[in-house]
Amino acid sequence: MPDPLPADRCTTMAEVRAGVDALDEAIVGLFAQRMRYMDAAARIKPTRELVRDEPRKAAVIDHARAVAEARGFPPALAAALYDMLVEGSIAYEMERFDAR
Prior knowledge:
The chain is an all-alpha fold. It has 3 helices and no strands. It has a single domain, classed as Chorismate Mutase Domain, subunit A (Up-down Bundle). The protein starts with 12 loop residues before the first helix and ends with a helix. The mean pLDDT is 97.
């Protein structure tokens, strides 16, 4: 499959959808890589109580908001997505911690 066209060169919805699909595949691949760090955190943290770290959660969301603003992505949307991502990551990490 050829690389998708840049968004500013798309002239059909098929081209737009091909670009979105390619990006979604890359994004999900990056999320999977991110979860490997949750595996590492579950292995490294000495107690289950350390899995949920509210100050770290706030810092991650603030960082996502700042990166979004710098890159032209809606900051509020980035914050909402990262809130969901971090909560899912915490749940995953707790499962991995409990399984060790």
